[in-house]
Write a structure and sequence with these properties.
This protein is mainly α. The chain has four helices and two strands, in the order H-H-H-H-E-E. It folds into two domains: 56 residues; 70 residues, Winged helix-like DNA-binding domain superfamily/Winged helix DNA-binding domain (Arc Repressor Mutant, subunit A, Orthogonal Bundle). Helix 3 packs across helix 4. It is elongated and about 110 Å long.
């Protein structure tokens, strides 16, 4: 009988030892996760030498519906169809924006030109970089 009791006790000990091992592994992972969180919080603290400031708010170049209105006016005043770059240069100069802002303005203008084309307010001739836009004049 004592042999049977020893076998049961050894089995129980092995089971508990496995649980302790698994718990120690889990504890090591949790400690590593805590260390990573602490490091991230330190970096985000302004006093830290590796501080990463939050990204600023996007610059608003145009008020609501202003870009569409400016595009229509620019195309109306033009004697010929214009490219997106020409439209951006005209609008950027009229608003007094620096030349460095032209790529961002051109992207916004291209997006708005596509919307106006879908709506049927302007026409597009050509493809990609050779594209030219003109206003549709009612007859």
């Amino acid at each position: 009988m004592s042999e049977h009791v020893l076998t049961v006790l050894r089995s129980k000990r092995t089971e508990i030892a496995g649980q302790v091992h698994d718990t120690e592994k889990k504890l090591a992972k949790l400690r590593a996760a805590l260390a990573n969180l602490d490091a991230a919080m330190n970096i985000l603290t302004p006093e830290h030498p590796d501080y990463v400031p939050a990204r600023g708010r996007k610059t608003r170049y145009f008020a609501m519906n202003e870009l569409s209105r400016l595009i229509r006016e620019t195309l109306r005043d033009a004697a010929k169809p214009l490219s997106a770059g020409e439209i951006a240069a005209t609008i950027g100069a009229a608003k007094g924006y620096p030349p460095a802002s032209l790529p961002a303005i051109t992207k916004m203008i291209l997006a708005r030109l596509n919307v106006l084309t879908i709506r049927g307010e302007i026409t597009k001739t050509g493809r990609t970089r050779d594209a030219r836009w003109a206003i549709i004049t009612p007859d």
